[in-house]
Write a structure and sequence with these properties.
single chain; about 350 residues; six-stranded mixed β-sheet; 10 helices; 13 strands; about 35% helix
């Protein structure tokens, strides 16, 4: 008897995300675990073990998508896809694994070798393919810890790009997120003490520090060690942020650092807004088409929708879930979408 229970897996370069859907398609469990893949495959093995300990111990099927093949642990993206799948297959029953390969749909591990390009970084497409039949039209904006996906859907996926290079070129993929992105990658100058200061090209502070200073960082969003491996209080973030300007935190009031951080946050939102405007300028979507927010940074999508005077819909509104899972739902959209799509193909 074939089961309709699925665990969707999204293997990223920094996090492992998993969602369990019961035989009715309801999300009963969802989790995100830190997984610094660039430091070695042992982190993926450890995260898999922890996830399996927390998820239901049943004979479920597994649907897998990924972006982690891009980390510099691997010789190439193709090598990354192979090693990630081999690692997963060493822990999960191979006969119950389905791999999401974008336009090629779901395939078995045995068929993956010839489709590594379609498997690589296809998690955004899983989200879009899941949402597209549920709305007449929308702009999906998934802002995560590291990247932002901007995907128009109207009956089907209307994205121009398919791989990372193509999506970067048309700004459907932006390498900016609310946790791991270095401050120096967001703003090339900072207003401080009446001057424009070019931030130091050092990994002193990240966007998690910015949003912590602005008191906008979602609970549990920052699962990675701080840049200096120190604390994560507001004053700790201010200390790291001040270093970007060649200062010590004590050299200015905390409100001065906060105001400067708010400028950086605005620059990040402006970049996402500009890319969204470029996608919308293709005139695929009507003016009333909503923005659908996903990812740990979806609070920015809601703000963007207000600026564009468009409706906002949270990804969680498209799925059934038990209340205990609500915190991580929209943050783990590709994992949920991958499991949901696999259920319909079963």
């Amino acid at each position: 008897m074939r089961t309709s229970e699925y665990i969707g897996w999204d293997i990223g370069g920094a996090h492992l995300k998993a969602a369990y859907l019961n035989d009715h398609g309801t999300v009963e469990h969802v989790l995100q675990l830190p997984c610094p893949l660039w430091q070695g495959l042992s982190h993926l093995r450890d995260a898999l073990e922890q996830a399996l300990d927390e998820l239901p111990d049943r004979e479920v099927r597994h649907a897998i998508t990924m972006t982690g093949e891009l980390v510099d642990l691997f010789a190439s993206r193709a090598d990354g896809v192979r090693q990630l799948l081999n690692t997963v297959a060493s822990r999960l029953p191979v006969e119950r694994i389905s791999i999401y390969a974008g336009d090629a749909g779901f395939i078995s591990p045995a068929d993956s070798e010839g489709l590594v390009e379609q498997i690589a970084s296809a998690n955004w497409m899983a989200t879009a393919a899941f949402i597209a039949p549920l709305v007449s039209q929308a702009l999906i904006v998934d802002i995560g810890s590291t990247t932002t996906d901007i995907i128009p859907v109207r009956g089907s996926i209307q994205a121009l790009g398919r791989n990372d290079y193509q999506r970067l070129a048309c700004q459907e993929l932006i390498y900016t997120g609310i946790v791991r992105t270095p401050v120096m990658a967001v703003a090339d100058r900072l207003p401080f003490d009446g001057e424009w200061i070019e931030p130091m090209a050092e990994h002193f502070a990240v966007m998690a520090d910015v949003y912590r200073l602005c008191q906008r960082l979602p609970v549990d969003a920052d699962q990675m060690p701080a840049a200096d491996n120190c604390g994560k209080s507001v004053i700790d973030s201010a200390r790291r942020f001040a270093r970007m300007l060649g200062c010590d935190v004590e050299s200015a009031p905390i409100d001065a650092w906060r105001r400067c951080a708010e400028f950086v946050a605005e620059r990040q939102l402006r970049r996402i807004a500009d890319a969204s405007a470029r996608v919308l300028s293709r005139e695929i979507l009507d003016d009333e088409a909503p923005l659908i927010g996903a990812g740990v940074g979806r609070f920015l999508v809601q703000e963007l929708a207000e600026r564009l005077e468009r409706p906002y819909i949270d990804f969680s509104q498209f799925i059934d879930f038990v209340p205990a899972t609500e915190h991580w739902l929209a943050s783990c959209a590709p994992a949920i979408a991958c499991a949901g799509l696999a259920r319909t193909k079963n």
